[in-house]
Amino acid sequence: MPAARYLPLRGLLLAIAGCALSGCKPTPPAALGTLEWDRITVPASAAETIVGIGVREGQQVAAGAALLQLEPIRTAAQLQALEAQASQAGEALRELRDGPRREDIDQARATLASARAEAVDASAYYRRLQPLGRQQLVAASDVDRARAAAGSAQGAVRAAEQALLALEHGTRVEQVAQGEAALQAAQAQVAAQAVTLRKLDLVAPRAGRVDALPYKLGDQAPVGAPLVVLLVGERPYARVYLPEPLRLKVRVGQAAQVHLQGRDGALPGRVRSIRSDPTFTPYYALSGEDVSRLSWLAEIELDPADGRAPLADLPAGAPVRVEF
User: In this protein, which residues make up the domain named YbhG-like alpha-helical hairpin (predicted)?
Assistant: First the structure.
């Protein structure tokens, strides 16, 4: 056999021997992604104009630090109106608990006495007309009107008696309960508005770094719009996309090595979560046969740095490669 036919085989054997001598190792499975921090937003509690900004993007802030201030004039006026309504409800409840005044009771007694006197006069007039009517000395219609007037006077007496009894018995328990409920509702509205007024002075709910200020001084953001975005947490985490061949090999709690582009060495980490629903692989995580396959989003928590640059200085969005 010609020697030329042995050349490809000889080259393959030489490559295998060279790899064995140089200690070639298979490339460990890896996933691509980005470095992320936990993000929280401070929303707008009211559609008010931004009148003050006390921080800048990239600034590190402590918990409770002042961030922004919104215009408080309208919210403060609404709070004053609600406080007046609560005061009115409180006075109405006190009036119910105190019951009717002595003067009102005396007035009701006087009204009853007047009604009784009118009833006596009407009854006497009707009795005088009865015999005259039988003798046909007066018209029958006059007798009928006198009888109706006497009955009406008796009805007025009974109404005055019941009105006096109602005042003497005082306020009903149900009315007092309704007054108490109205006062509680008014006080709750005051408390809610007071919280809204305090929220116009935006403060940091947690210590972190200001990542974004979407609105500028003088803007008027809608209610619920994010006014400040903070990066919080003790250290960042790697968010990577696991291709289908790698999904069955990675488990929650598994150790991993996180490589950051532009940083020597690897950071130790541990898989803290893997999404159960697959998604399409983003363009920057595509490699080889993974182009047409689904991937699973995973998060790798970084362990504290061991003598190297602190993890707090690592930027969000930096590309990472995670090996398992």
Answer: 79-194
